Amino acid sequence: MSPKITIPSTGQVIIAEPGRSLRETLAEAGLFLESPCGGAGKCGKCRVEISGGRPPGPTAEEKALLSAEDLARPARLACLLVPDDDLTIILPQAEREARILSSGRSRAAVFEPTLTKTFLAWPGRRPSDDSRSLERLFTDLSGAEIPAENLKLRLFLAEAGEAADCFTVLWAEGRPLNLEKGDTTAHLYGLAVDIGTTTIVASLVDLRDGRELGARSLINPQTRQGLDVLSRITYCGEKGAAGTAELQKAVIGALNELALGLAQDHRIDPGHIYLVAAAANTTMLHLLAGISPISLGVVPFAPVFTRGLDLPSFAPGPLAGAGLITLPSVSAYIGADIVAGAFVCDLANLDRTLFIDIGTNGEIILAAGGRLLACSCAAGPALEGMNIQYGMRAAAGAIEEVNLTWTPAECRTELSVIGGGEPTGLCGSGLMAAIREFLRLGLIRRDGRMITELPEGDPRRALCRLWDNKPALGFTGSDLCLTQKDVRQVQLAKGAILSAFRTLLLKTGLDMTDLSRVLVAGQFGSYLSPASLTGCGILPPEMAGRLEYVGNTSKAGAYLALTSRSARKAMEELAARIEFFELATFPGYDRLFADSLRFPEPPAPPTP
């Protein structure tokens, strides 16, 4: 008899199929748990508490990822737990609404959208039941012939031409694309979309005048199969075509959800959204198009396509009538989101400028001497709060800034929490701020080792903790803490980003101080303070005054592609100019990376 899984918080009782993990069983019931590693048993985030029944004993992976207190409750990882008996479980607190960046720098472009509409009316008496005569009349009225392959328009004329006194023509670059009964010229909309590895943002755009009417965002549902692109590539490799189809269905479902929400916000018919322009990294674009990304994960890391796509239709559901255009990519790991940012920031006409989009991957372009040199690094999800013991997304309850002060009598903590109230975790900016402050107080050494053994009377002892009987650093007035493993995760991300910066500069003979500006794009980067960037050693202190935050340039580029054919063409030309190289091929990169792992020399600890 199959085990029953009871969930008091939702009132559900789910039958668990033999041999399936609890994570898979919950997902089939529409209950999705945070799972940055894609269910591989490596991140420890899909933790559930067993309040009834007898679970199997903990696996070696669970013993390594969960504290002794967690195991005693008992808690288990849903991806590793295969129920063999009835269980009652307590799910982690429902995911809060995340803070997602939707705005960013833009630039002027000629307004010339791909799609337009015109209104036509039959003059006087129309030809009777002769579709060829109706086609000739349509040609006389519109000045264009119906393309031979467009059976949809011919069917409209044959079935509705006699019944309709007037109709509206939808044009795509001078070719009739569709006919609609009546006058619908007031309704012509498109979506500009940034599909990030973690988040998706969409703006509703009026294609009659280019006005951006509103924006919506959500967490990319593909995060259920892993937080980074490599996890999703691996998922497709393991599941084959079914895995690619599953991930495509997830992202299309998200776009449909955003389209419906925006249509409701602005009281329009979602059927009047005719075009979606998407910018994304190369893996996300492959999955959006339903093309396996497996080739992106193995040498020679070859994309199936890099040029922008132009599909007449791509999505079942509310967007079924919409076409899709995508921005061009450069390589497997310099995607259309980065091309969009380079175009929006006009990098081709700048010099000694570094552009970086910091996320699970760090993509970087250096504009110097008329060249555009690009590379990418695997920063990992730590900087977005993942793979961190108390890490979380930038949502209500997340610590986003930390300030530590001490006096001879005590050590004080000031925490800035998104939404106010008690903190429940640290998002990426809060994590970096905590590292910065612990470095400043001399509690983390240059090599990343925590200093938790302090003499009696040292006020900093108030910040020293034990987590699962191991040294940790925390905050006064809070149970949250950073473990040594958390610090190592940040070191790896910092080392990847800094070594990429330094490699680009070495290839052009420049020094960091030669740069005139550093443009920081993306969700995480826009909330990361200059003090944290320099305090953690990603950039030298003298660069603080040269930082410019440019926001979500990926969506800004998608907007330009949606509203300007010349801008879209210019992006194709720009992508062809960008020179990409693999960091691993640079002589001495391993040593450079190892050196970049070290934190900056902290100042002498302040005297209380």
How would you describe this structure in keywords?
globular; six-stranded mixed β-sheet; Nucleotidyltransferase, domain 5; Ubiquitin-like (UB roll); 608 residues; alpha/beta; 15 helices
Fold and architecture overview:
This protein has 608 residues and is α/β, with parallel strands linked by helices. Among the domains are: 4-90, Beta-grasp domain (Ubiquitin-like (UB roll), Roll), CATH 3.10.20.30; 115-181, no CATH class; 189-326, Nucleotidyltransferase, domain 5 (2-Layer Sandwich); 343-379 and 503-553 and 566-596, Nucleotidyltransferase, domain 5 (2-Layer Sandwich). It is built from 15 helices and 26 strands. The strands form 6 sheets. Strands 11-10-9-12-14-13 form a 6-stranded mixed beta sheet, with helices on both faces. Strands 25-24-15-16-17-26 form a 6-stranded mixed beta sheet, sandwiched between helices. The chain is globular, with a radius of gyration of 27 Å. The protein starts with a strand and ends in a 12-residue tail after the last helix.
Tally of alpha and pi helices? 15
Shape estimate: globular
Mean pLDDT: 85
Widest beta sheet: strand line-up: 11-10-9-12-14-13
User: What is the helix fraction of residues, given as a range?
Assistant: 25-40%
Per DSSP E runs of 2 or more residues, the count of β-strands stands at 26
Per the CATH scheme, the topology name of the domain at 189-326 is: Nucleotidyltransferase, domain 5
* Low-confidence spans: 94-99
Beta-strand proportion: 15-25%
